[in-house]
Design brief:
With 267 residues, the protein is an alpha/beta fold. The chain has helices at residues 20-30, 47-56, 68-74, 80-85, 104-116, 132-141, 156-165, 175-181, 222-229, 238-253, 259-265; strands at residues 7-12, 37-41, 59-63, 77-78, 90-94, 97-101, 124-128, 148-152, 170-172, 184-187, 210-213, 233-235. It is globular. Bound molecules: 2'-monophosphoadenosine-5'-diphosphate (ATR).
């Protein structure tokens, strides 16, 4: 039996851009739950103490950049997607034990289906990035039939280590091969979050390629705009954000939120 949390927080850094408080609070209010979803902006050095304090408060919440992998290492118990992704974006406490889940996996899967307008299968995916978000993307793609993933990352050592964990369908790559071969290009880096940089120039991609940015911004990201200007189908991270948030809400309370209320609050 799920005991509802007494406090809800988003643990991360530089959270001013986050839309999570907006749509989670809209859903909480709609469900008549007397809680506010708050941001907790903390450095890595404060993570230990913060988690201990949250345990005593019977809190639950989300984790975002840059703490997803650190919180994974702190968990007493992991749900299967978090164990596979080696990253936690959703947590709660049961009898003082820290439980970690990863609803980015389901969030990415839902966003990709929306973009592709079909069940994903027989695709070459170009994945840019090799952090916690990239681990969640690979965990989702692992369930897609007959897909392979080319992974490119600024730090090659990190993409090699990530691909080794998903070696049956993922291999390290460079931007050039990825651009030449990918049917679906996914940005799982933080590029574009606080700047207007592109993870890869859309002009280099195949004319039939689709683009999925995990980064979101009000009015969509510059990369998504640039991809569309080249005639590519493109979607930013808002659908993934809402889906991961809806799945997290269900973990905390045992029933799903009203997704329409969540969507309306961020329009
Ligand atoms: P998350 O949990 O969101 O994945 P992360 O683990 O900090 O966050 O990973 C961030 C990703 O963005 C990494 O792939 C990182 O590349 P490195 O492994 O080389 O650090 C990538 N990234 C961040 N800033 C970048 C930049 N300016 N250019 C290219 N890649 C960048």
């Amino acid at each position: 039996m799920i005991k509802p949390p007494k406090r809800l927080v988003l643990v991360g850094r530089s959270l001013g851009h986050s839309l999570s408080p907006l749509f989670q609070n809209a859903a909480l209010q709609h469900a008549k739950l007397p809680l506010r979803y708050e941001t907790l902006d903390i450095p890595a050095s404060a993570l230990d103490d913060t988690l201990q304090e949250l345990a005593t408060e019977d809190a639950a919440g989300n984790v975002t950049v840059p703490h997803k992998q650190a919180v994974f290492s702190h968990c007493d118990r992991l749900m299967a997607p978090a164990a596979r992704a080696e990253a936690v974006n959703t947590f709660w406490f049961e009898r003082g034990e820290l439980i970690g889940d990863n609803t980015d996996v389901a969030g990415f899967d839902a966003a990709a289906r929306r973009l592709l307008e079909r069940t994903p299968a027989h695709l070459t995916v170009g994945l840019i990035g090799a952090g916690g978000a990239a681990g969640a993307v690979l965990t989702a793609i692992e369930a897609w039939p007959s897909c392979r993933v080319l992974v490119s990352n600024r730090t090659a050592q990190r993409s090699a280590a990530l691909c080794a964990r998903f070696s049956s369908f993922a291999q390290p790559s460079d931007a050039e091969s990825l651009a030449r071969e990918a049917d679906l290009v996914v940005n799982a880096t933080t590029v574009g979050l606080r700047d207007s940089e592109f993870p890869i120039d859309p002009a280099r991609l195949r004319p039939s390629a689709m683009v999925l940015d995990i980064v979101y911004r009000r009015g969509e990201t510059q990369w998504v705009h640039a991809a569309r200007a080249r005639g590519l189908r493109a979607m930013d991270g808002l659908a993934m954000l809402i889906e991961q948030g809806a799945a997290a809400f269900e973990r905390w309370f045992g029933f799903p939120p009203d997704r329409d209320v969540m969507w309306r609050s961020v329009q």
